[in-house]
Structure to design on (532 residues):
Protein backbone atom coordinates (compact mmCIF):
# COMPACT_ATOMS: atom_id res chain seq x y z
CA UNK A 1 0.00 0.00 0.00
CA UNK A 2 1.49 3.46 -0.92
CA UNK A 3 2.71 5.55 2.02
CA UNK A 4 0.22 8.36 1.29
CA UNK A 5 -2.70 5.96 1.10
CA UNK A 6 -1.68 4.39 4.40
CA UNK A 7 -1.49 7.89 5.95
CA UNK A 8 -4.94 8.82 4.68
CA UNK A 9 -6.42 5.59 6.05
CA UNK A 10 -4.94 6.42 9.45
CA UNK A 11 -6.44 9.91 9.29
CA UNK A 12 -9.85 8.39 8.63
CA UNK A 13 -9.54 6.30 11.80
CA UNK A 14 -8.70 9.25 14.04
CA UNK A 15 -11.39 10.09 16.70
CA UNK A 16 -10.95 13.85 16.10
CA UNK A 17 -11.38 16.04 13.02
CA UNK A 18 -8.20 15.82 10.91
CA UNK A 19 -7.23 16.96 7.40
CA UNK A 20 -4.11 17.04 5.14
CA UNK A 21 -3.43 19.66 2.46
CA UNK A 22 -0.65 19.45 -0.13
CA UNK A 23 1.91 22.30 -0.39
CA UNK A 24 0.45 23.49 -3.71
CA UNK A 25 -2.96 23.97 -2.07
CA UNK A 26 -4.56 21.77 -4.74
CA UNK A 27 -5.81 18.77 -2.84
CA UNK A 28 -7.19 18.23 0.62
CA UNK A 29 -8.01 15.00 2.44
CA UNK A 30 -10.73 15.23 5.16
CA UNK A 31 -11.35 12.39 7.62
CA UNK A 32 -14.77 11.13 8.72
CA UNK A 33 -14.95 13.09 11.99
CA UNK A 34 -14.29 16.46 10.34
CA UNK A 35 -16.76 15.58 7.60
CA UNK A 36 -19.47 15.19 10.27
CA UNK A 37 -18.55 18.61 11.72
CA UNK A 38 -18.62 20.44 8.40
CA UNK A 39 -20.75 18.45 5.99
CA UNK A 40 -17.86 18.36 3.53
CA UNK A 41 -17.31 15.11 1.58
CA UNK A 42 -14.79 12.53 2.87
CA UNK A 43 -11.58 11.81 0.92
CA UNK A 44 -9.54 13.73 -1.67
CA UNK A 45 -11.25 16.79 -3.09
CA UNK A 46 -9.99 19.72 -5.04
CA UNK A 47 -9.68 22.88 -2.92
CA UNK A 48 -11.52 24.69 -5.66
CA UNK A 49 -14.57 22.50 -4.96
CA UNK A 50 -14.78 24.04 -1.48
CA UNK A 51 -14.69 27.55 -2.92
CA UNK A 52 -17.89 26.83 -4.89
CA UNK A 53 -19.86 26.13 -1.68
CA UNK A 54 -21.90 29.05 -0.20
CA UNK A 55 -19.52 31.48 1.48
CA UNK A 56 -16.60 29.26 0.51
CA UNK A 57 -14.58 31.90 -1.35
CA UNK A 58 -14.10 34.10 1.71
CA UNK A 59 -13.35 31.14 3.95
CA UNK A 60 -10.90 29.73 1.38
CA UNK A 61 -9.03 33.02 1.36
CA UNK A 62 -8.57 32.90 5.16
CA UNK A 63 -7.44 29.26 4.91
CA UNK A 64 -5.04 30.03 2.05
CA UNK A 65 -3.40 32.86 3.96
CA UNK A 66 -3.02 30.76 7.15
CA UNK A 67 -1.64 27.74 5.29
CA UNK A 68 0.70 29.91 3.23
CA UNK A 69 2.10 31.26 6.49
CA UNK A 70 2.73 27.72 7.78
CA UNK A 71 4.50 26.81 4.53
CA UNK A 72 6.55 30.01 4.62
CA UNK A 73 7.91 29.92 8.16
CA UNK A 74 7.09 26.38 9.31
CA UNK A 75 5.30 27.75 12.41
CA UNK A 76 1.98 26.38 13.69
CA UNK A 77 -1.15 28.52 13.43
CA UNK A 78 -4.72 28.46 14.73
CA UNK A 79 -7.82 29.27 12.73
CA UNK A 80 -11.44 29.58 13.87
CA UNK A 81 -14.32 29.56 11.44
CA UNK A 82 -18.11 29.31 11.37
CA UNK A 83 -20.54 27.71 8.98
CA UNK A 84 -24.20 26.79 8.77
CA UNK A 85 -25.49 23.25 9.20
CA UNK A 86 -29.08 22.05 8.99
CA UNK A 87 -29.13 21.67 12.78
CA UNK A 88 -27.81 25.22 13.27
CA UNK A 89 -24.68 27.38 13.19
CA UNK A 90 -21.42 25.64 14.19
CA UNK A 91 -17.98 26.94 15.12
CA UNK A 92 -14.75 25.02 14.48
CA UNK A 93 -11.24 25.77 15.74
CA UNK A 94 -8.35 24.25 13.74
CA UNK A 95 -4.64 23.92 14.58
CA UNK A 96 -2.40 23.92 11.49
CA UNK A 97 1.13 22.37 11.52
CA UNK A 98 3.70 21.50 8.83
CA UNK A 99 4.36 17.82 7.90
CA UNK A 100 8.00 17.26 6.93
CA UNK A 101 9.80 14.39 5.16
CA UNK A 102 13.09 12.83 6.27
CA UNK A 103 15.01 15.72 4.68
CA UNK A 104 13.06 18.31 6.62
CA UNK A 105 11.17 19.57 3.59
CA UNK A 106 7.49 20.45 4.12
CA UNK A 107 5.43 17.96 2.14
CA UNK A 108 1.97 18.84 3.50
CA UNK A 109 0.02 20.84 6.07
CA UNK A 110 -1.78 18.82 8.74
CA UNK A 111 -4.74 20.18 10.63
CA UNK A 112 -6.59 19.08 13.76
CA UNK A 113 -10.13 20.49 14.11
CA UNK A 114 -12.56 20.58 17.03
CA UNK A 115 -16.18 21.64 17.24
CA UNK A 116 -16.38 24.41 19.90
CA UNK A 117 -20.00 25.45 19.27
CA UNK A 118 -21.21 24.40 22.71
CA UNK A 119 -18.27 26.13 24.39
CA UNK A 120 -19.09 29.38 22.62
CA UNK A 121 -22.79 29.01 23.51
CA UNK A 122 -21.86 28.44 27.16
CA UNK A 123 -19.60 31.51 27.12
CA UNK A 124 -22.44 33.60 25.64
CA UNK A 125 -24.91 32.32 28.23
CA UNK A 126 -22.46 33.11 31.03
CA UNK A 127 -21.91 36.61 29.67
CA UNK A 128 -25.66 37.16 29.40
CA UNK A 129 -26.17 35.94 32.97
CA UNK A 130 -23.48 38.30 34.25
CA UNK A 131 -24.94 41.17 32.24
CA UNK A 132 -28.41 40.46 33.62
CA UNK A 133 -27.10 40.32 37.17
CA UNK A 134 -25.19 43.60 36.75
CA UNK A 135 -28.25 45.31 35.24
CA UNK A 136 -30.34 44.09 38.16
CA UNK A 137 -27.83 45.17 40.81
CA UNK A 138 -27.41 48.61 39.20
CA UNK A 139 -31.17 49.15 39.54
CA UNK A 140 -31.16 48.17 43.20
CA UNK A 141 -31.58 50.89 45.85
CA UNK A 142 -28.73 49.24 47.78
CA UNK A 143 -24.97 49.19 47.32
CA UNK A 144 -23.26 45.89 46.54
CA UNK A 145 -19.61 44.90 46.18
CA UNK A 146 -17.10 42.03 45.93
CA UNK A 147 -13.48 42.29 47.16
CA UNK A 148 -10.55 39.90 47.08
CA UNK A 149 -8.81 38.71 50.23
CA UNK A 150 -6.56 41.77 50.26
CA UNK A 151 -9.52 44.18 50.13
CA UNK A 152 -9.26 45.13 46.43
CA UNK A 153 -12.57 45.77 44.69
CA UNK A 154 -13.42 43.23 41.99
CA UNK A 155 -17.03 44.38 41.53
CA UNK A 156 -19.02 47.45 42.61
CA UNK A 157 -22.63 48.20 41.76
CA UNK A 158 -23.52 51.58 40.35
CA UNK A 159 -24.73 52.77 43.77
CA UNK A 160 -21.50 51.52 45.38
CA UNK A 161 -19.38 53.35 42.80
CA UNK A 162 -21.31 56.54 43.58
CA UNK A 163 -20.75 56.02 47.32
CA UNK A 164 -17.00 55.61 46.74
CA UNK A 165 -16.86 58.56 44.38
CA UNK A 166 -15.32 56.29 41.74
CA UNK A 167 -17.34 56.30 38.49
CA UNK A 168 -16.52 54.46 35.28
CA UNK A 169 -14.75 51.56 36.96
CA UNK A 170 -12.21 53.73 38.80
CA UNK A 171 -12.79 51.50 41.84
CA UNK A 172 -11.41 48.39 40.12
CA UNK A 173 -8.37 46.93 41.91
CA UNK A 174 -8.39 49.62 44.61
CA UNK A 175 -9.29 49.48 48.33
CA UNK A 176 -11.48 51.47 50.73
CA UNK A 177 -8.40 53.39 51.88
CA UNK A 178 -8.29 55.02 48.41
CA UNK A 179 -11.78 56.53 48.76
CA UNK A 180 -13.34 56.93 52.22
CA UNK A 181 -11.99 58.42 55.48
CA UNK A 182 -9.21 56.29 56.95
CA UNK A 183 -11.04 55.49 60.20
CA UNK A 184 -14.05 54.16 58.37
CA UNK A 185 -11.79 52.29 55.91
CA UNK A 186 -10.04 50.55 58.84
CA UNK A 187 -13.43 49.55 60.31
CA UNK A 188 -14.45 48.07 56.96
CA UNK A 189 -11.19 46.15 56.64
CA UNK A 190 -11.49 44.73 60.18
CA UNK A 191 -15.06 43.60 59.48
CA UNK A 192 -13.94 41.98 56.19
CA UNK A 193 -11.08 40.12 57.89
CA UNK A 194 -13.40 38.86 60.65
CA UNK A 195 -15.72 37.35 58.04
CA UNK A 196 -12.76 35.78 56.22
CA UNK A 197 -11.38 34.30 59.47
CA UNK A 198 -14.70 32.96 60.76
CA UNK A 199 -16.21 31.98 57.40
CA UNK A 200 -19.54 33.25 58.80
CA UNK A 201 -21.70 36.02 57.36
CA UNK A 202 -21.91 39.19 59.43
CA UNK A 203 -24.77 41.72 59.51
CA UNK A 204 -24.59 44.96 61.49
CA UNK A 205 -26.11 48.43 61.54
CA UNK A 206 -23.90 51.47 61.93
CA UNK A 207 -22.66 54.75 60.52
CA UNK A 208 -20.92 54.84 57.15
CA UNK A 209 -19.08 57.83 55.61
CA UNK A 210 -18.89 58.18 51.82
CA UNK A 211 -16.11 59.71 49.73
CA UNK A 212 -17.62 63.22 50.17
CA UNK A 213 -17.65 62.88 53.98
CA UNK A 214 -21.43 62.45 54.25
CA UNK A 215 -22.48 60.19 57.15
CA UNK A 216 -25.56 57.96 57.08
CA UNK A 217 -26.93 54.94 58.91
CA UNK A 218 -26.57 51.66 56.98
CA UNK A 219 -27.50 48.03 57.48
CA UNK A 220 -24.47 46.15 56.12
CA UNK A 221 -24.24 42.44 55.37
CA UNK A 222 -20.89 40.81 54.59
CA UNK A 223 -20.37 37.16 53.67
CA UNK A 224 -17.49 34.97 52.43
CA UNK A 225 -17.46 33.55 48.89
CA UNK A 226 -15.29 30.55 47.97
CA UNK A 227 -14.22 30.08 44.32
CA UNK A 228 -11.78 27.22 43.92
CA UNK A 229 -8.89 27.96 46.26
CA UNK A 230 -9.65 31.69 46.34
CA UNK A 231 -11.80 33.38 49.01
CA UNK A 232 -13.59 36.67 48.48
CA UNK A 233 -15.73 39.06 50.53
CA UNK A 234 -19.13 40.08 49.15
CA UNK A 235 -21.41 42.63 50.71
CA UNK A 236 -24.75 44.44 50.46
CA UNK A 237 -25.65 47.65 52.34
CA UNK A 238 -28.98 49.44 52.67
CA UNK A 239 -29.45 53.05 53.75
CA UNK A 240 -31.66 52.97 56.86
CA UNK A 241 -31.23 56.61 57.89
CA UNK A 242 -34.86 57.55 57.27
CA UNK A 243 -36.10 54.38 58.91
CA UNK A 244 -34.04 55.17 62.03
CA UNK A 245 -35.45 58.72 62.08
CA UNK A 246 -39.02 57.43 61.95
CA UNK A 247 -38.35 54.94 64.72
CA UNK A 248 -36.91 57.73 66.86
CA UNK A 249 -39.98 59.88 66.15
CA UNK A 250 -42.11 57.03 67.47
CA UNK A 251 -40.04 57.13 70.72
CA UNK A 252 -38.85 53.55 70.35
CA UNK A 253 -35.85 52.72 72.46
CA UNK A 254 -32.42 52.07 70.97
CA UNK A 255 -32.59 48.46 72.11
CA UNK A 256 -35.87 47.90 70.32
CA UNK A 257 -34.44 49.44 67.15
CA UNK A 258 -31.48 47.08 67.32
CA UNK A 259 -33.77 44.09 67.96
CA UNK A 260 -35.97 45.05 65.01
CA UNK A 261 -33.02 45.48 62.67
CA UNK A 262 -31.46 42.17 63.76
CA UNK A 263 -34.72 40.37 62.94
CA UNK A 264 -35.35 42.27 59.71
CA UNK A 265 -32.86 41.11 57.05
CA UNK A 266 -33.15 42.63 53.61
CA UNK A 267 -34.71 40.25 51.07
CA UNK A 268 -33.83 40.61 47.38
CA UNK A 269 -35.38 38.86 44.39
CA UNK A 270 -35.87 39.12 40.63
CA UNK A 271 -38.57 37.76 38.33
CA UNK A 272 -38.75 37.57 34.55
CA UNK A 273 -41.57 39.04 32.44
CA UNK A 274 -43.72 35.95 33.09
CA UNK A 275 -43.36 36.29 36.85
CA UNK A 276 -40.94 33.37 37.28
CA UNK A 277 -38.11 33.76 39.80
CA UNK A 278 -34.67 34.01 38.18
CA UNK A 279 -32.83 35.28 41.26
CA UNK A 280 -33.42 35.04 45.03
CA UNK A 281 -31.02 36.23 47.73
CA UNK A 282 -29.78 33.87 50.41
CA UNK A 283 -31.67 35.84 53.06
CA UNK A 284 -34.87 35.19 51.07
CA UNK A 285 -34.09 31.47 50.82
CA UNK A 286 -33.29 31.19 54.52
CA UNK A 287 -36.34 33.18 55.61
CA UNK A 288 -38.75 30.92 53.70
CA UNK A 289 -36.71 27.69 53.92
CA UNK A 290 -36.10 27.17 50.20
CA UNK A 291 -33.36 24.64 49.46
CA UNK A 292 -31.13 23.82 46.47
CA UNK A 293 -32.65 26.45 44.18
CA UNK A 294 -36.10 24.80 44.24
CA UNK A 295 -37.64 28.23 43.63
CA UNK A 296 -35.86 28.74 40.28
CA UNK A 297 -38.23 29.08 37.32
CA UNK A 298 -41.34 28.95 39.52
CA UNK A 299 -43.92 31.69 39.93
CA UNK A 300 -45.70 32.94 43.04
CA UNK A 301 -48.69 30.67 42.46
CA UNK A 302 -46.35 27.66 42.65
CA UNK A 303 -44.54 28.83 45.81
CA UNK A 304 -47.30 30.33 47.94
CA UNK A 305 -50.89 29.54 48.96
CA UNK A 306 -53.42 31.05 46.59
CA UNK A 307 -54.56 33.81 48.99
CA UNK A 308 -50.92 34.89 49.53
CA UNK A 309 -49.85 34.69 45.88
CA UNK A 310 -52.82 36.65 44.48
CA UNK A 311 -51.79 40.14 45.75
CA UNK A 312 -48.15 39.47 44.74
CA UNK A 313 -49.25 38.72 41.18
CA UNK A 314 -51.64 41.70 41.05
CA UNK A 315 -48.97 44.11 42.34
CA UNK A 316 -46.47 42.83 39.74
CA UNK A 317 -49.05 43.34 36.99
CA UNK A 318 -49.58 46.96 38.11
CA UNK A 319 -45.83 47.64 38.02
CA UNK A 320 -45.53 46.17 34.50
CA UNK A 321 -48.50 48.20 33.32
CA UNK A 322 -47.38 51.52 34.83
CA UNK A 323 -43.65 50.98 34.27
CA UNK A 324 -42.59 52.54 37.59
CA UNK A 325 -41.53 51.51 41.10
CA UNK A 326 -44.06 50.98 43.89
CA UNK A 327 -43.67 50.89 47.68
CA UNK A 328 -46.03 48.29 49.17
CA UNK A 329 -46.88 46.44 52.35
CA UNK A 330 -47.21 42.71 51.60
CA UNK A 331 -47.92 39.77 53.89
CA UNK A 332 -46.34 36.32 53.72
CA UNK A 333 -46.25 33.31 56.08
CA UNK A 334 -43.03 32.07 57.68
CA UNK A 335 -42.31 28.30 57.41
CA UNK A 336 -44.04 27.87 60.80
CA UNK A 337 -47.22 29.45 59.40
CA UNK A 338 -46.99 32.77 61.28
CA UNK A 339 -47.78 35.81 59.14
CA UNK A 340 -45.26 38.63 58.79
CA UNK A 341 -45.66 42.01 57.12
CA UNK A 342 -42.99 43.34 54.76
CA UNK A 343 -42.24 46.79 53.43
CA UNK A 344 -41.53 46.04 49.77
CA UNK A 345 -40.05 48.14 46.98
CA UNK A 346 -40.78 46.62 43.56
CA UNK A 347 -39.44 48.13 40.35
CA UNK A 348 -39.33 47.27 36.63
CA UNK A 349 -36.10 47.18 34.63
CA UNK A 350 -34.65 45.67 31.47
CA UNK A 351 -31.22 44.42 30.45
CA UNK A 352 -29.21 45.44 27.40
CA UNK A 353 -31.05 42.84 25.29
CA UNK A 354 -34.40 44.47 26.10
CA UNK A 355 -35.63 41.64 28.36
CA UNK A 356 -38.09 42.84 30.99
CA UNK A 357 -37.76 41.98 34.68
CA UNK A 358 -39.23 42.97 38.03
CA UNK A 359 -36.87 43.40 40.98
CA UNK A 360 -37.83 43.55 44.63
CA UNK A 361 -36.42 44.46 48.04
CA UNK A 362 -38.23 43.57 51.28
CA UNK A 363 -37.75 44.67 54.90
CA UNK A 364 -39.62 43.02 57.76
CA UNK A 365 -42.10 45.55 59.18
CA UNK A 366 -44.11 43.20 61.43
CA UNK A 367 -43.16 44.77 64.76
CA UNK A 368 -43.69 48.29 63.51
CA UNK A 369 -47.12 47.46 62.10
CA UNK A 370 -48.10 45.78 65.37
CA UNK A 371 -47.03 48.90 67.30
CA UNK A 372 -49.05 51.10 64.95
CA UNK A 373 -52.10 48.87 65.39
CA UNK A 374 -51.70 49.01 69.19
CA UNK A 375 -51.38 52.79 69.13
CA UNK A 376 -54.45 53.06 66.89
CA UNK A 377 -56.45 50.84 69.25
CA UNK A 378 -55.38 52.86 72.30
CA UNK A 379 -56.42 56.11 70.63
CA UNK A 380 -59.94 54.67 70.15
CA UNK A 381 -60.40 53.13 73.62
CA UNK A 382 -61.65 54.70 76.85
CA UNK A 383 -58.95 54.12 79.47
CA UNK A 384 -61.34 53.85 82.45
CA UNK A 385 -63.97 51.42 81.08
CA UNK A 386 -62.14 49.68 78.23
CA UNK A 387 -65.06 50.61 75.93
CA UNK A 388 -64.70 52.60 72.71
CA UNK A 389 -64.16 56.32 73.24
CA UNK A 390 -65.85 59.04 71.16
CA UNK A 391 -63.28 58.75 68.34
CA UNK A 392 -63.46 54.95 68.22
CA UNK A 393 -67.25 54.94 68.34
CA UNK A 394 -67.73 57.37 65.47
CA UNK A 395 -65.06 55.65 63.33
CA UNK A 396 -66.84 52.28 63.69
CA UNK A 397 -70.48 53.34 64.02
CA UNK A 398 -70.38 55.53 60.90
CA UNK A 399 -69.31 52.47 58.84
CA UNK A 400 -72.04 50.34 60.42
CA UNK A 401 -74.57 53.08 59.67
CA UNK A 402 -73.61 53.00 55.99
CA UNK A 403 -73.92 49.20 56.04
CA UNK A 404 -77.43 49.49 57.48
CA UNK A 405 -78.43 51.83 54.65
CA UNK A 406 -76.96 49.50 52.00
CA UNK A 407 -78.54 46.33 53.42
CA UNK A 408 -81.81 48.09 54.38
CA UNK A 409 -81.73 46.85 57.96
CA UNK A 410 -83.23 48.46 61.07
CA UNK A 411 -81.15 49.44 64.12
CA UNK A 412 -81.33 51.74 67.13
CA UNK A 413 -79.15 54.25 68.94
CA UNK A 414 -79.32 54.39 72.76
CA UNK A 415 -78.04 57.44 74.62
CA UNK A 416 -77.36 56.59 78.30
CA UNK A 417 -76.55 59.17 81.01
CA UNK A 418 -75.61 58.39 84.65
CA UNK A 419 -77.97 60.22 87.00
CA UNK A 420 -76.34 62.42 89.63
CA UNK A 421 -72.69 61.65 88.86
CA UNK A 422 -71.62 65.14 90.00
CA UNK A 423 -73.34 64.57 93.34
CA UNK A 424 -71.56 61.23 93.78
CA UNK A 425 -68.21 62.89 93.04
CA UNK A 426 -68.88 65.81 95.40
CA UNK A 427 -70.24 63.72 98.27
CA UNK A 428 -68.17 60.51 98.06
CA UNK A 429 -65.14 61.50 96.03
CA UNK A 430 -64.00 60.89 92.44
CA UNK A 431 -62.96 57.32 93.20
CA UNK A 432 -66.63 56.46 93.84
CA UNK A 433 -67.58 58.45 90.75
CA UNK A 434 -65.16 56.38 88.68
CA UNK A 435 -66.68 53.20 90.13
CA UNK A 436 -70.14 54.36 89.05
CA UNK A 437 -68.81 54.92 85.52
CA UNK A 438 -67.14 51.49 85.40
CA UNK A 439 -70.32 49.77 86.71
CA UNK A 440 -72.49 51.48 84.10
CA UNK A 441 -70.10 50.46 81.32
CA UNK A 442 -70.12 46.84 82.51
CA UNK A 443 -73.95 46.81 82.66
CA UNK A 444 -74.15 48.01 79.06
CA UNK A 445 -71.50 45.53 77.91
CA UNK A 446 -73.32 42.48 79.28
CA UNK A 447 -76.79 43.70 78.26
CA UNK A 448 -76.17 43.83 74.49
CA UNK A 449 -74.97 41.42 71.84
CA UNK A 450 -71.36 41.07 70.68
CA UNK A 451 -72.26 42.69 67.35
CA UNK A 452 -73.54 45.85 69.09
CA UNK A 453 -71.20 48.82 69.66
CA UNK A 454 -70.88 50.29 73.17
CA UNK A 455 -68.90 53.47 73.91
CA UNK A 456 -68.32 56.10 76.57
CA UNK A 457 -68.39 59.46 74.76
CA UNK A 458 -68.30 61.83 77.73
CA UNK A 459 -67.82 62.02 81.48
CA UNK A 460 -71.21 60.44 82.34
CA UNK A 461 -72.51 59.72 78.81
CA UNK A 462 -72.61 56.37 77.02
CA UNK A 463 -74.02 55.34 73.63
CA UNK A 464 -75.05 51.94 72.25
CA UNK A 465 -75.54 51.16 68.55
CA UNK A 466 -77.87 48.15 68.67
CA UNK A 467 -77.91 46.24 65.38
CA UNK A 468 -81.17 44.59 64.34
CA UNK A 469 -82.70 44.81 67.84
CA UNK A 470 -86.29 43.46 67.68
CA UNK A 471 -87.47 44.66 71.14
CA UNK A 472 -86.03 48.01 72.21
CA UNK A 473 -88.33 48.30 75.23
CA UNK A 474 -87.06 44.95 76.55
CA UNK A 475 -83.44 46.09 75.97
CA UNK A 476 -84.03 49.32 77.91
CA UNK A 477 -85.69 47.46 80.78
CA UNK A 478 -82.90 44.86 80.84
CA UNK A 479 -80.29 47.62 81.25
CA UNK A 480 -82.24 49.31 84.07
CA UNK A 481 -82.88 45.97 85.80
CA UNK A 482 -79.17 45.11 85.79
CA UNK A 483 -78.39 48.48 87.31
CA UNK A 484 -80.83 47.63 90.11
CA UNK A 485 -79.14 44.24 90.50
CA UNK A 486 -75.83 46.06 91.04
CA UNK A 487 -77.43 48.27 93.69
CA UNK A 488 -78.72 45.22 95.59
CA UNK A 489 -75.56 43.18 95.23
CA UNK A 490 -72.87 45.79 95.90
CA UNK A 491 -72.41 47.62 99.19
CA UNK A 492 -72.29 51.13 97.75
CA UNK A 493 -72.76 54.43 99.61
CA UNK A 494 -74.81 55.70 96.65
CA UNK A 495 -77.62 54.44 94.47
CA UNK A 496 -76.67 53.98 90.81
CA UNK A 497 -79.26 55.00 88.21
CA UNK A 498 -79.29 56.07 84.57
CA UNK A 499 -81.54 57.75 82.02
CA UNK A 500 -81.90 56.24 78.54
CA UNK A 501 -83.00 57.84 75.28
CA UNK A 502 -83.61 55.70 72.16
CA UNK A 503 -83.64 56.68 68.48
CA UNK A 504 -84.82 53.93 66.20
CA UNK A 505 -84.00 54.23 62.50
CA UNK A 506 -84.20 52.17 59.33
CA UNK A 507 -83.07 53.03 55.84
CA UNK A 508 -83.77 56.76 55.40
CA UNK A 509 -80.54 58.13 53.82
CA UNK A 510 -81.75 61.71 54.34
CA UNK A 511 -81.05 61.58 58.08
CA UNK A 512 -77.37 61.67 59.12
CA UNK A 513 -75.82 59.65 61.91
CA UNK A 514 -75.21 62.87 63.88
CA UNK A 515 -78.92 63.67 63.66
CA UNK A 516 -79.74 60.22 65.02
CA UNK A 517 -77.40 60.80 67.96
CA UNK A 518 -78.93 64.23 68.67
CA UNK A 519 -82.40 62.69 68.64
CA UNK A 520 -81.39 59.98 71.13
CA UNK A 521 -79.74 62.62 73.33
CA UNK A 522 -82.94 64.68 73.40
CA UNK A 523 -85.02 61.65 74.32
CA UNK A 524 -82.58 60.82 77.12
CA UNK A 525 -83.15 64.26 78.65
CA UNK A 526 -86.88 63.72 78.41
CA UNK A 527 -86.44 60.47 80.31
CA UNK A 528 -84.24 62.25 82.88
CA UNK A 529 -87.02 64.77 83.50
CA UNK A 530 -89.47 61.94 83.92
CA UNK A 531 -91.22 62.55 80.58
CA UNK A 532 -91.95 59.17 79.03
Amino acid sequence: MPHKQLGDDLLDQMPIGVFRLDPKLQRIHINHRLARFTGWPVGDNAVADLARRPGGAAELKRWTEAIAGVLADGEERSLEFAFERPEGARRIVARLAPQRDETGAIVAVLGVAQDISEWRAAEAALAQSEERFRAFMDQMPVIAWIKDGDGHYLYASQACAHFLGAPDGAWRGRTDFDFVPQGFARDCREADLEVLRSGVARRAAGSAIDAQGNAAEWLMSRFPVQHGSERYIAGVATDITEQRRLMSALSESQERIKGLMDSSPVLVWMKDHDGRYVYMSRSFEERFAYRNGEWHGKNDAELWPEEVARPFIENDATIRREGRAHELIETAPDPDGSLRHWWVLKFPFQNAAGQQFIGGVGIDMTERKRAEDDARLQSQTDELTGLYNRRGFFALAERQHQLVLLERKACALLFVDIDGLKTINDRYGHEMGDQAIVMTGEVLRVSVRDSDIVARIGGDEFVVLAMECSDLVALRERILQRIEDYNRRESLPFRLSASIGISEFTTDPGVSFEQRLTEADARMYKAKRGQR
